[in-house]
Amino acid sequence: MLQNPHHFYSMDRVKPRPRWFFRWRFTLVRGGISGNKILIAMRRRTAVLSALTGLAYAAASTTKVPAAEEGSAVNPELEKVKALLKAHDEALKGHDLEGVLKTFAKKGAVMGTGPGEIWSGTEELKDAYTHFFESFDKGEQQFEYQHKFGGLNGDMGWLMASGNVNGKLKGKEVSLPLNISITAAKEEGAWKIFSLHFSTLTSGEEKK
């Protein structure tokens, strides 16, 4: 069990420059009824949003409890972790910045796919999520996870999931592969997200 959930934030790190890498684009290939390929350009920040909104969905059927607690009908700590992820999910869908920030630890961090895509602490997360909100159709995401793993032990929990996310951007349907992982731990007696990592395609095309 992690004795000090804060220790991995003590390392000095170079502040990433340039700050934003969302200008990068990648294309998703969708097959139409006629068989023609429709190329959909999608900003990286939209991929970020799709990744982050799947936490509660993935956790609902994933997280395992210690063997000693499996016989219980309800594990209170597991339910609290699920509630935490659901709160993040709902706040993100509603563009509720304060609601999102409440789910993170004081030095919580989010890491993306490309160089420099890392944000830590309240101010950086606030800036990051403000940008995330700019390209997002509310309530239009559906998640299909083929692989899900997780665990809960004492004051620490973790989740990994891999699959696809389908949704809409400005009314247009989009789909992309997705990997996410999080670490949750207790801070001042309450469950918080300490780290969140997502990865998806950064360039090229995926053919269906």
From TrEMBL:
SUPFAM superfamilies the record matches:
NTF2-like (SSF54427)
Q: Which InterPro entries match?
A: NTF2-like_dom_sf, SnoaL-like
Alphabetical list of Gene3D superfamilies matching this protein: 3.10.450.50
**Every SnoaL-like domain range:** 81-201
Matching Pfam families = SnoaL_3
Designated name of the protein: SnoaL-like protein
| Organism, as annotated | Roseimicrobium gellanilyticum
